[in-house]
């Protein structure tokens, strides 16, 4: 071992350690921000390690430097701009986009190595020499392509650019996807056998497979899919690590792959879905129209903003249940003003956060934090559920399925078994909603029919603004 | 590095990943996913290797450069966006000071 090798070894070891500490730290609120920076630092360190290794051994040609700089500047610039500009509500699709590009990167590396077997350098990079390299190239292309097209489809669906085509809800899609899968396998083995030309077939069919698998999945399940694809991009990175013989890449890729799987599992649990039903079951709404078609509302009470304000003024304890509708209306800041007024009047205000509120677990916390809601007021479902019977008013804002009592009472409901917030236990429930449309799952919400529930129809932001006015007229929040 | 030892690396890395996030508060799921996603952009190292080893092969240089661009888009964007999210959580301990 000469000096550059030793230096690279030490730097790689340090980078792995810091990355592991980074992921670990990201799972605690206190350390999360520093941990993220630590991980970013570890990544830069790994780049320095790699470049210094090549500088110390084979040297880096001017031409290479030029292409390195071009690629880095363009990629980093776009990444940074997007990260700064994107609104917090679009976080899931942003993560999907980033993730897809990571997959694309692994795909391109494998493709490059496969088409132009590089020779020279100290390790003698003759990639098609051994079976292992062919396997790792194939895996890298296969997983990378699925990650890329799957993530792009997921992003497009979340953005509303793509709807769910009808045929994807029928059995046809299983047939189509099986064809793609079999074709990928054929190309896969053909490639391993040394038939380089089948590489394009592999790229095409695995891309199609990524689209075919993601397209039928309904919006509610998208976060699970994104998390799964995130895990895939780790696997793709690890495979690329085998391709270029980098332990650091393998470790980091494997860590992300495994951590992504755990996170996917956690998300599935929160939504009462199994991974299998997410991937192969089609969208939830398609199933539910069949099973709970008798979804007519019989006992809807609607009320004005004024009544709502009067009830709030008389309350001692108020629980807010925010959902994605709130975020879409960008009303979290207006909501904060309302709760400030209530608090000034001595009313206890708490936010009940369902594990999958928003579009991703934890998404709602981010959105409320953006509006300066104190962290201590955000209560998780298990902690807040026993409080509902002692609560005067519950304000449901743009949430629907997560407050549906069907999940507890109706064993025939597709929602049955999903953990929900027991808002119906409170004395009065106000549901602020645009209309009577169903929630994400497309299932009727029994809560709306209950006698202690009143609907306040209107756009969340407008209703909240009116509410501020009414509260002002009542003298709430004036000192 | 022999294939077998690389497999060991893969195995241990996976086990480490499984252990690292045993329990995460739901609050942090989105930032964690985003942060882990940024780390998966570590393929930038593979892209760099490709460029360095290209030895004047222009198509390969271009593929490597594009690959590097995609990876860094993932890495830089991922870390920035995660930081943006986490900054919101750390803002409110204002009552501490």
Properties at a glance:
heterodimer; A: 479 residues; alpha/beta; six-stranded parallel beta sheet; elongated; B: 97 residues; mainly alpha; 4 helices; flat; disordered C terminus; EC 7.1.1.1 (chain B); membrane (chain B); NADP (chain B); translocase (chain B); NADP_transhyd_a_C (chain B)
Provide a descriptive summary of the structure in words.
- The complex is a heterodimer of chains A (479) and B (97).
- Chain A is of the alpha/beta class and 479 residues long.
- Chain A is built from 18 helices and 6 strands.
- In chain A, 59% of the residues lie in helices and 6% in strands.
- In chain A, strand 2 (348-353), helix 15 (363-370) and strand 3 form a beta-alpha-beta unit.
- Mean pLDDT of chain A is 83; it is low at 120-125 and 284-294.
- Chain B has 4 helices and no strands.
- Chain B has helices at residues 3-20, 29-39, 44-53, 58-91.
- By secondary structure, chain B is mostly helical.
- At the A-B interface, helix 1, helix 2, helix 3, helix 4 and helix 8 of A face helix 1, helix 2, helix 3 and helix 4 of B.
Break the fold down into its secondary structure elements and pairings.
The complex is a heterodimer of chains A (479) and B (97).
Chain A: H1 3-25, H2 32-56, H3 62-85, H4 91-115, H5 131-159, H6 172-192, H7 198-214, H8 222-243, H9 247-271, H10 275-280, H11 284-291, H12 305-313, E1 317-322, H13 324-328, H14 332-344, E2 348-353, H15 363-370, E3 378-380, H16 381-384, E4 393-397, H17 406-409, E5 428-433, E6 453-457, H18 460-473
Parallel strand pairs in A: 1-2, 1-4, 2-3, 4-5, 5-6
Chain B: H1 3-20, H2 29-39, H3 44-53, H4 58-91
Kindly summarize this structure in a few lines.
The complex is a heterodimer of chains A (479) and B (97). By secondary structure, chain A is of the alpha/beta class.
